[in-house]
Write a structure and sequence with these properties.
Blueprint: H1 3-18, E1 32-37, H2 41-47, H3 50-56, E2 65-71, H4 81-99, H5 112-124, H6 129-144, H7 148-161, E3 170-176, E4 181-184, E5 187-190, H8 195-204, H9 229-237, E6 241-247, H10 251-268, E7 271-277, H11 287-297, H12 309-319, H13 327-340, H14 348-357, H15 368-380, E8 389-394, E9 397-402, H16 408-435
Parallel strand pairs: 1-2, 2-3, 6-7
Antiparallel strand pairs: 1-4, 4-5, 6-8, 8-9
Helix pairs in contact: 2-6, 3-6, 5-6, 5-7, 10-11, 10-13
Length: 436
């Protein structure tokens, strides 16, 4: 690692962390817009929130601008189009259950003919404002609830009685849109995952006329979903197990591991397993996003020294040099040294210090590159679009998800497992009563 990076990164990161993470005011000149695709399932979830959002927007940023694209971007993380499509449908189904969105039990991508009909309806309608947003929601319902007969009828009426409209708050284009997102003050906000962050920003700038009530089952950081002692004991007795696949140069890996270890693992009796991955260039990250996430998760994050490819190799060598039962603790210490003490593990004095702290008398002779590649293959088999990748096993079931945005799923899954058990017990009791 260059001397400039080794010495400058810790200074720069400390300075960056201490400065305000939010500008006092973002520009309202361009208003608030949402980018959608008719064949994007996240857009379907997003439009279900738009009429309520429009209702509480201040006049300064009204009307909400709706931009509908006909073109998708390439799937992330080298996923095939089919893998990405299946992932999105499954993820959206989970989000809909958690936050009570309307959703089909067996969702599928709408056919091209239906998408073309939906676009014609939306292009031709003279409705504006909230009336248009309600129509937009209805059209998405027709597309994603397989109500193609209703869609054909509405399309026939729109084609015969109306012509294409030209309203400034309604735009159709072919810009690449992977998933739906809001745009405000030249910043992008994921339409579902960042909705609360967006509304906090709007409220801070006094651009809302009422209290935003969205994602009502959102689980805040360090607030447990399960606190009842009896329910907690039942989850602990199921011995849940959680695998983490982490890129060592990715700060989100540190934030996620630290949060789970400090807040969830002991509380729920989760057995953690860590699988380090080979270098994926995740050291080129958004400093502002990582800083904001660290403050929301209350995980220390600075001063840091971003690991290079060589540094990640040395980190993995230390990890595999400790006994297996001590590796989670070792990884926690290694990442803590890198992301909160500014250590460069490709720098021998720093490496030797961590080796001494971990009480490693002899380094492993194993092929570290081969072990990392093996973990890469296991991770790729999970077909996830982002890192870190998590696999939770409990009560004979396995659940795979990814990123810091989905850590809430751990507690949500626990809650669902308890609910299913209670239903099963009640059904058994009713069967016994009928037999008697």
């Amino acid at each position: 690692m260059s001397l400039l990076r080794r010495w400058f990164d810790p200074l720069r990161s400390s300075w960056f962390y201490q400065k305000p993470t939010r500008q006092v005011v973002l520009s309202t000149e361009q208003g608030l817009s949402i980018h959608l695709r008719l064949d994007d399932v996240y857009s379907y979830l997003a439009v279900q929130q738009l009429p309520e959002l429009e209702e509480i927007l201040s006049d300064e940023i009204k009307p909400l601008k709706v931009i509908i694209s006909s073109r998708t971007a390439e799937p992330p993380n080298h996923m095939s189009k089919m893998e990405w499509q299946n992932y999105c449908l499954n993820d959206a189904k989970i989000l809909s259950k958690q936050h009570r969105f309307s959703f089909h039990e067996t969702p599928e991508q709408p056919p091209l003919e239906a998408i073309a009909q939906a676009e014609t309806i939306l292009r031709n309608t003279p409705l504006r404002g909230q009336d248009f947003l309600y129509l937009l929601e209805d059209v998405f319902h027709m597309l994603w609830q397989k109500q193609y007969g209703k869609l054909r009828t509405l399309h026939a009426m729109a084609s015969r009685h109306h012509q294409a409209q030209n309203f400034p708050e309604r735009i159709f284009n072919d810009s690449e849109v992977l998933v739906s997102y809001f745009e405000f003050g030249e910043r992008k906000y994921h339409a579902v995952d960042d909705l609360l962050r967006l509304t906090r920003r709007l409220k801070q700038q006094k651009l809302l006329t009422g209290n935003p009530i969205f994602l009502i089952n959102h689980i805040e950081w360090r607030e447990h979903l399960i606190s009842d002692a009896e329910e907690l004991n039942e989850i602990q007795a199921l011995d849940p197990e959680l695998d983490l696949y982490i890129a060592l140069e990715d700060p989100i890996s540190w934030l996620l591991l630290a949060y789970i270890k400090e807040e969830l693992a002991n509380f729920y009796n989760i057995q953690l397993n860590v699988y380090p991955l080979s270098y994926h260039r995740r050291d080129l990250f958004d400093w502002g996003l990582a800083t904001r996430l660290s403050k929301r998760t209350e995980v220390k994050f600075t001063p840091f020294c971003r690991p290079t490819q060589q540094a990640t190799y040395e980190m993995a060598k230390l990890f595999y040099s400790v006994p297996e039962e001590q590796r989670v603790e070792a990884m926690y210490s290694i990442l803590q040294a890198v992301w909160t003490k500014g250590k460069d593990l490709s720098f021998k004095p720093h490496f030797d210090q961590i080796q001494h702290d971990l009480e490693i008398s002899e380094l492993t002779q194993a092929d570290i590159s081969a072990k990392l590649k093996e973990n890469d293959i296991l991770c790729e088999m999970k077909s996830q679009p982002d890192f870190p990748v998590l696999e939770l096993r409990i009560d004979g079931q396995s659940y795979v998800f990814n990123s810091l945005y989905r850590v809430w799923m751990i507690e949500s899954i626990f809650s669902n497992v308890l609910e299913d058990q209670y239903k099963s017990e009640n059904d058994d009791s009713k069967d016994e009563e009928r037999e008697m």
